[in-house]
């Protein structure tokens, strides 16, 4: 798009989906239950898959249909199922306490998201596939995911933050490189699966030694 003229229906739908992804990121930050965080991640991944399908239909990029299906299966079905199974084995329900209170974390995330949104917006980046506003929102999603990773003190929240950060990166790639070869896009998804395995092993080993998913003890090991 050229950045001039009235927004199209496609632009409105794409921007709305991007905002929904960001709102789900904030809900993950507020969630006190680990299973709720995982389910919110699954919904967020579903929404990102829908965005890929919308781009495929609206901009005639048929390979994105394949990406949308693979993304849905990997990120909205397989990854949440694996994490929920690990949680069932660990018998853990409550997310670890954060460095700040939940309200303070949300306020910090709002500031960080606004900074990311307006910073990227000033770059005047245009795309032939998605409106530039979607890029600004995607960058805000990435920054809020970093807040979740840094502020929470349990393995599951940090893992969910890392996985949702990947959702933000996926949105960025849809804006700036939707024509990327499909094999590369699918390779990125399998990298995510490797990350899930690594986090799964970490969760099992850490819980087996400390009977907890809290990372406070790990933090104390720093020299």
TrEMBL record:
It comes from the Bacteria. The keyword Nuclease does not apply. It is found in: Cell membrane. The chain crosses the membrane at residues 12-33, 40-58, 64-87, 99-118, 130-150, 162-180, 186-205. InterPro entries: HyfE-like. It is a multi-pass membrane protein. One of its GO terms (cellular component) is plasma membrane. Keywords: Cell membrane, Membrane, Transmembrane, Transmembrane helix. This is Hydrogenase subunit. It comes from Nostocoides japonicum T1-X7.
